[in-house]
């Protein structure tokens, strides 16, 4: 056999060097996605001085804490579909809850994270709460059932999934149940988990809740559940460290929607949408980002980290480029969309929120605003009913239950969204601008409700 010419040896050497360099620059990249259930901004790192959340606070201290992250909808299944598809709930078809008689489905043609990553050779798994369907849209390689409040078990399930993945890069979703309401209370005192209790008199009372003993006791139990979640986050981060995946794994922590109390969950007010978002990307400097991040940005961020192309149907954009920017330009508005929670809770709404204003279009404003079953059965709402309260915190019960067609709030002077300025002549220019921007967004996202309800 004749020896290879020198030029071929040189070419081969260069090729091998480039391949090695490529492996160094594009190492194995995994994602662990931690989803809390019904957690608001009740964390030490977001300013709550009462609640104890040392593990989530540590994650924030070592990563990027977003001060202006917003869910697109304050309802469990629709929000999770938004996270996995990068699409608004009215665009992906997950109009409401995906269980029991509610039985809402994501459109079958939608490209979700597990679907995209499966085709690209990645391994995906989800522990405990799934809450989206159908399986053909969300083809997790492993759906690992379990008690979403038994956080030690969840950590061990995560360990096994990661070990079983071997050298294959993975996406692992941790579907915690805390601090969602249980059939009674918040499912507290789980065996094998430290149980930290709180003095009801010292909990931080949100503006939209009544200062009553039953409500404070309810909030104290919610805090207990959130603290159990924090313990679980600590266990999961310990697993990553022990398995030596700290340096190749993007960790994302957020909550699907606002707290399970009236005035928050199922609304498009900030109490339902303005939520925690923490992203730890190895090699990135920690800090705070004030850019307005939408939950439609989560799926594009994960795909970007994993080196995968974002499908054209996704409506968000990757957050990776702004992780180290405190005030990134061009991140100044988010949108929201709601149709159902339970199937009996039809109340379609659309929203645009800027730095200074929020505009909500209540598409079926003639209907009274419905109450989710878990909220209705809770101590807070039952207390309200027994007393016959006319106020829901600082908002009148009439304002809460009977909405006008349009709501406009100046967030600079009214951050609690209590004074509707939609009929104020001085706000006519702002109102017209936000109407136009919302309609443009509805057209862009092919909103099925646009045809019947558009404001002329």
What does this structure look like?
By secondary structure, the protein is α/β, with parallel strands linked by helices. It has helices at 6-25, 54-61, 76-85, 89-92, 113-119, 151-165, 213-242, 270-273, 298-305, 373-377, 379-387, 397-401, 428-444, 450-453; strands at residues 30-36, 64-70, 123-128, 142-144, 170-175, 249-255, 274-280, 287-294, 333-338, 349-354, 357-362, 391-392, 395-396, 406-410. It is globular, with a radius of gyration of 23 Å.
Question: Total number of β-strand segments?
Answer: 14
State the secondary-structure class: alpha/beta
> How would the global form be characterised?
globular
What spatial order of strands do you see in the largest sheet?
Answer: 4-3-5-1-6-7-2-8
Q: How can the largest sheet be summarized?
A: 8 strands, mixed
Share in β-strands: 15-25%
Low-confidence stretches: 1-26
What is the subunit organization of this protein?
single chain
SSE inventory with pairings:
Layout (H helix, E strand, L loop, with lengths): L5 H20 L4 E7 L17 H8 L2 E7 L5 H10 L3 H4 L20 H7 L3 E6 L13 E3 L6 H15 L4 E6 L37 H30 L6 E7 L14 H4 E7 L6 E8 L3 H8 L27 E6 L10 E6 L2 E6 L10 H5 L1 H9 L3 E2 L2 E2 H5 L4 E5 L17 H17 L5 H4 L3
Parallel strand pairs: 1-5, 1-6, 2-8, 3-4, 3-5
Antiparallel strand pairs: 2-7, 6-7, 9-10, 10-11, 11-14, 12-13
Helix pairs in contact: 6-7, 7-11
């Amino acid at each position: 056999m004749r020896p290879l010419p020198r030029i071929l040896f040189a070419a081969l050497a260069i090729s091998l060097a480039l391949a090695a360099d490529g492996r160094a620059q594009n190492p194995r990249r995994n994602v662990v996605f931690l989803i809390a259930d019904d957690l608001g901004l009740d964390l030490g790192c977001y300013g709550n001085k009462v609640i104890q959340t040392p593990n989530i606070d540590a994650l924030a201290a070592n990563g990027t804490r977003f001060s202006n992250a917003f869910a697109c909808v304050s309802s469990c299944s629709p929000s999770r579909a938004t996270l996995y598809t990068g699409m608004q709930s009215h665009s992906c078809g997950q109009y409401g809850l995906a269980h029991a008689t509610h039985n809402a489905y994501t459109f079958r043609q939608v490209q979700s994270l597990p679907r995209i990553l499966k085709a690209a050779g990645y391994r995906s798994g989800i522990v405990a709460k799934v809450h989206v369907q159908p399986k053909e849209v969300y083809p997790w390689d492993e759906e690992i059932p379990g008690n979403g409040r038994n956080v030690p078990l969840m950590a061990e399930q995560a360990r096994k999934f990661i070990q079983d993945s071997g050298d294959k890069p993975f996406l692992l979703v941790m579907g915690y149940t805390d601090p969602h309401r249980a059939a009674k209370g918040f499912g507290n005192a789980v065996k094998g988990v430290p149980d930290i209790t709180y003095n009801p008199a010292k909990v931080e009372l949100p503006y939209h809740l009544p200062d009553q003993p039953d409500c404070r006791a309810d909030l104290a139990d919610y805090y207990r559940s959130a603290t159990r979640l924090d313990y679980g986050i600590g266990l999961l981060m310990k697993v990553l460290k022990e398995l030596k995946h700290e340096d190749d794994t993007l960790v994302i922590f957020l909550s699907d929607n606002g707290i399970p109390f009236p005035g928050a969950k199922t609304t498009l007010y900030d109490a339902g949408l303005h939520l925690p978002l923490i992203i730890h990307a190895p090699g990135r400097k920690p800090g705070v980002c004030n850019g307005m991040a939408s939950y439609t940005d989560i799926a594009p961020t994960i795909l970007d980290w994993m080196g995968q192309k974002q499908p054209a149907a996704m409506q968000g954009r990757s957050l990776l480029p702004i992780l180290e920017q405190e005030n990134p330009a061009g991140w100044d508005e988010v949108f929201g969309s709601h149709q159902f929670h339970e199937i009996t809770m039809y109340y379609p709404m659309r929203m645009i929120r800027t730095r200074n204003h929020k505009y909500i279009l209540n598409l079926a404003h003639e209907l009274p605003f419905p109450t989710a079953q878990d909220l209705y059965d809770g101590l807070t709402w039952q207390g309200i009913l027994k007393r016959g309260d006319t106020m829901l915190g600082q908002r009148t019960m009439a304002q809460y239950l009977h909405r006008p067609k349009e709501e406009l709030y100046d967030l600079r002077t009214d951050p609690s969204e209590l004074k509707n300025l939609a009929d104020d002549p001085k706000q006519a220019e702002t109102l017209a601008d936000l109407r136009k921007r919302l309609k443009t967004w509805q057209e862009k996202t092919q909103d099925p409700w646009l045809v019947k309800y558009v404001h002329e």
